[in-house]
Design brief:
Shape: globular
Largest sheet: 4 strands, mixed
Number of strands: 4
Structural class: alpha+beta
Number of domains: 1
Helix content: 25-40%
Number of helices: 2
CATH class: Alpha Beta
CATH superfamily: RelE-like
Strand order of the largest sheet: 1-4-3-2
CATH topology: YaeB-like fold
């Protein structure tokens, strides 16, 4: 099992997503989002190539929900979380 490392951008975008959910909905929805994220991280740690490649070379895209995806890449010893993105936005991933 590879170690998961959060980049500063991944931490920032994760917290922004949580903050948005809390403002727009409620704690229950935010907790559900958190559970989905950590379920995906558990799967990624067991099979790092489970999710498809993104538009950018060597990055993978794990869909968390209809609105949010996780971008990450894999090294020999780690899984680096790059960012959480809004699937509806114009992003480069």
């Amino acid at each position: 099992m590879l170690e998961i490392v959060w980049s500063a951008e991944a931490e920032k975008t994760y917290l922004e997503a949580l903050e948005f959910i809390l403002k727009k909905w409620n704690v229950r929805v935010a907790e559900s989002f958190e559970k989905k994220v950590f379920d995906v991280l558990h799967l990624v740690s067991r099979n790092s190539r489970l999710h498809p490649l993104s538009k950018k070379k060597n990055l993978r895209k794990a869909v968390i929900s209809k609105q949010t995806s996780l971008i990450y890449y894999v090294t020999k010893s780690e899984i680096i979380l790059v960012a959480f993105i809004d699937n509806r936005s114009k992003h480069s991933y």
